[in-house]
Amino acid sequence: MADKILKELTLKIWRQKDAKSKGEFKTYKVHNISTGTSFLEMLDILNEQLVEQNEEPVAFDHDCREGICGTCSLFVDGRAHGPDDDVTTCQLHMRRFQDGATITIEPWRCGAFPVIKDLIVDRKAYDKILQAGGYVSVGTGGVPDGNAIPIPNDKAEEAMDAAACIGCGACAATCKNSSAMLFVAAKVSQLALLPQGKVEAARRAKAMVAKMDELGFGNCTNTGACEMECPKSISIEHIARLNREFLKAKFKD
Amino acid sequence: MSNFFTSSIGKKFIMSITGLFLILFLCVHLTVNLLLLFGADAFNAGCEFMELPVIKVIEPILALGFIIHIIWASVLTLQNQKARPTKYALRNQSKNCTWASRNMYILGALVLAFLVLHICNFWLDFKFGDVANETVTQYELVSQKLAQPVYGIIYIIAAILLGLHLSHGFWSAFQTIGFSNQIWRKRLEYVAYFFAFVFAIGFSVIALRFLIFGA
User: Fold this and answer.
1) Which of A13, A133, A138, A162 sits CB 3.0–4.6 Å from A204 for a disulfide?
2) With contacts defined as CB-CB under 8 Å, which chain A residues touch B187?
3) Is the minimum CB–CB distance between A79 and chain B shorter than 8 Å?
């Protein structure tokens, strides 16, 4: 079955030359877009058009284009990763849009994620939080035999759910407070649930929260918007666990 | 405990504890107020109970609870505003969170505005005015005030705003202290809606009774 064709789309895109320049919205038109086109492919088509017109193409982040790397971002029509739930922008397709629609495309807006160019933001802040404690530094020996370390199935499942985080930044980008709690919670949870990570759980929670605060992310008010926009559906139950780990650690000091 | 009170979770912990304390106060407040529905004797007796020494001790702690909850909320909200220097041109938040959860500070500010009016209406008279001078009884003062349409309607609106504030605040307080997981989250959300409903309806019914049937 042939895909439907969207005859014309109007794109309102944030253009910003570099980190220091003041940006603005520019309006572009694209024509004859198949509904089977992915959102990023639609931007590729726009960019080819711009190159032909001797204009600077729109800069946007992308890498794997199969929803697993966390590189693509974009705030599309007022929502992180666009109108679909549980997907990254690369997995968003043009069938979600009507012919003749106007689509507003903005970069992540978050003080800790400054815009580098057009739609690309600097997400090093998340790397810095990870560097502050998102690892296991105790000796864990060689690869243990299967089932040598007993881990209850529900704990393994929860840890795996948290580990699904791809660090895309949608949580902080969508949060009304620009809070990075879901990201930090996923990383703390993933390790605190497993025996190898439990050893350093207290130090990790304190260090990662301190770094998150230092980088200027806001304070979580439990609206739950992050879990709705998370392409990996990470639950805010992990935030409850982070709060628990942090408070336990602090009360012991 | 170093840096606890300056950390984001530490500040939220204070919000959560003071919030839960204020909910306890609301439970006592609503219980005594519901006596209004059972006539003058019942309510005046309830007011006598509120004169007990233990209540006198709790009163300044309660005031402190309010003040801390309000100041910390302002500090947190200000920080949260600063965390996003450039705002989005287009936001579609109704798709991912409830209206009450997004507007807790505004709801809180409106409840605070009502609280000031409420203190002027009753508390001052109870402590220093006509009730203290025994020229009117507690029941007479309250019933006459609420029978005035302006006050009756303001009290009903305030009760609904309070309910909305609690519909998010109650479960959020437990989430912040870490008391939530897959199972308890749903339970806490239902209890939050239950509390919100009870307070909104409870206080409204009292105002409605005097609005409709007069003092």
Assistant:
1) A133
2) none
3) yes
Amino acid letter, residue A147: N
Provide the pairing of β-strand A5-15 with A24-34. Answer: antiparallel
Structure tokens at A42: 């639609």
Report the residue from B86, B90, B177 with minimal CB separation from A243.
B177
Q: Quote the tokens at residue A2.
A: 């042939």
Contact criterion met (CB below 8 Å) for A34 and A4: yes
Residue A73 touches chain B, beta carbons under 8 Å: no
Domain pair A5-116 / A123-138+147-252, same fold: no
Question: Rounded to the nearest 5 degrees, what angle is found at the Cα of A29, between the Cα atoms of A28 and A30?
Answer: 125
pLDDT in tens, A127-163: 999 999 999 999 888 888 888 889 999 999 999 999 9
CA distance A116 to A29: 24
B8 contacts A216? CB cut-off 8 A: no
Q: What distance in Å separates residue B166's CA from the closest CA in chain A?
A: 13
What is the CATH code for A5-116? 3.10.20.30
Residues of chain B in contact with residue A110, where contact means CB-CB under 8 angstroms, are: 83-84
Q: Which amino acid is at B114?
A: F
Report the residue of chain B nearest A178, measured CA to CA: B83
Closest CA to A177 of B171, B5, B78: B78
Encoded tokens for A240: 């409850």
pLDDT, one tens digit for every residue, chain B (215 residues):
678 999 999 999 999 999 999 999 999 999 999 999 999 999 999 998 888 898 889 999 999 999 999 999 999 999 999 999 999 999 999 999 999 999 999 999 999 999 999 999 898 888 888 888 888 899 999 999 999 999 999 999 999 999 999 999 999 999 999 999 989 999 999 999 999 999 999 999 999 999 999 87
Residues of B in contact with A19 (CB under 8 A): none
Average pLDDT of the residues of chain A: 96
CATH topology for the A123-138+147-252 domain: Fumarate Reductase Iron-sulfur Protein; Chain B, domain 2 (1.10.1060)
B172 contact A CB<8A: yes
Sequence ranges of the domains in chain B: 4-83+99-213
Whether residue A178 and residue B7 make contact (CB cut-off 8 A), yes or no, is no
CB contact under 8 A, B102 and A228: no
- Answer whether residue A1 shows pLDDT above 70: no
Asked if B176's CB is within 8 angstroms of A176's CB, the reply is: no
Using the Cβ of B84 and the Cβ atoms of chain A, whether some distance falls under 8 Å is answered with yes
Domain boundaries, chain A: 5-116, 123-138+147-252
Q: Evaluate whether the domain defined by B4-83+99-213 bears CATH number 3.30.70.80.
A: no
What whole-number distance in Å separates Cα of residue B215 and Cα of residue B197?
26
